Amino acid sequence: MACSSSASRIVISSSSSSFVKQVHNSCPAQSSFMQFKLTYPRSLTHQSFNLHATTHCISSVPKRSFTCTSQSNNPIPSTNEPSKVQELYVYEINELDRGSPAYLRLSKKCFINSLGDLVPFSNKLYSGDLQKRVGITAGICILIQHKPMKGDRYEAVYSFYFGDYGHISVQGSYLTYKDTCLAVTGGSGIFEGVSGQVKLKQLVFPFKLFYTFYLKGIEDLPGELMGKPVRPSPFVHPSPMAKACKPGATVANFTD
Amino acid sequence: MACSSSASRIVISSSSSFVKQVDNSCPAQSSFMQFKLTYPRSLTHQSFNLHATTHCISSVPKRSFTCTSQSNNPIPSTNEPSKVQELYVYEINELDRGSPAYLRLSKKFFINSLGDLVPFSNKLYSGDLQKRVGITAGICILIQHKPMKGDRYEAVYSFYFGDYGHISVQGSYLTYKDTCLAVTGGSGIFEGVSGQVKLKQLVFPFKLFYTFYLKGIKDLPGELMGKPVRPSPFVHPSPMAKACKPGATVANFTD
Asked: A119, B20, B68, B72: which sits with the fewest CB atoms below 10 Å from its CB?
């Protein structure tokens, strides 16, 4: 789930005029790219989408180690029962062809993000090995707090859809300046009854994210979701077949 | 999670008697967000023309409360002997987070109705009110306005406990009655949690007391498990906790 600029995931920064930046060239240019206006702060008085691209250059992706608070990278199940934890890796990529995100500046504060802004979004979801298109993410980010010179805190409530396999719902914090852990609140299909948490790792803010799910309470996940994940970096991209949703490069009835 | 007036948690009542003064016992913050106390006709404005429906402390309903179909010590819903841990926290709106943001999207003036959304974020203290632990953050979705009674919201929000992690909840919030919400999940020490949480309003809409009944997690740390202050409208965090002094917060408390 990416919440930042340029018709993908847009966060409007209140910092100076330097926030009007060009969309990074490495992001796939789609013919159905949704138009948006790159304008100066005074245009934010308009009710339309006058969004300021705050896309960071790839080189500015923070490189810091990350652990879920109080958890190691391989979290021990939180009960004394030997519950099996399965790790599932997926990539969420905004290819700018779903009209996402929709930054709803409802807080009536112009030029600055504040409590009240809502950001519905939906991006594409690929398997961790980037060989298969599995589906989409869909949900909403609720802006909670804007920290000047730092970034924004959102409360995110959304789901990951895996075609015929079902879906996983999550809820938790999304910070534009730091990786976070979200709670796995439930699921359907093969994910029915699931519990656990998921680590969110931003690769290219706001277009690419890498997720590591730590899932409990479900049967063994199917092999096609469990391929060796591509090492997360800003330069990852789905295989051409997966991106084109060719047969064999998707899960059954992948969500679109 | 408090949904009512004055830039904290605002619920607009449709009656004309709803223009009331904010209770003096609520902490006055220098960063108190301005709001207009106006009459119903002002609700045609798109700006925040909110009517304070803060009840006086004496009007906090005093009624016994149990989660529907649950006793005060809910029995786990499975036959397995799952340990239930009780966790107490206070949520307090100190009017310095710009919360809540009442989004009157339903376009029905003078009356709350389905379509109104209320994002909010308040401060969270341990049950003994000695430590600042973090914040709540989420949204209330107005479902139904009952004239002369109050409002029903569907609330989806999280409780953040700094380095300990967070707990996500979902359920009903009624302005006129205490409720139970579902614990949908958590992270950190709350990873894999399930259960429910009782919401008790103390000072509508500024102070709430929660009792979590949590299953599926390890024993909670001692600093969250201090003896809770008996809930009343007059409770307040210790000065050290309120000032977030070292020793009066959890590690990296969420702010």
From this structure: B68
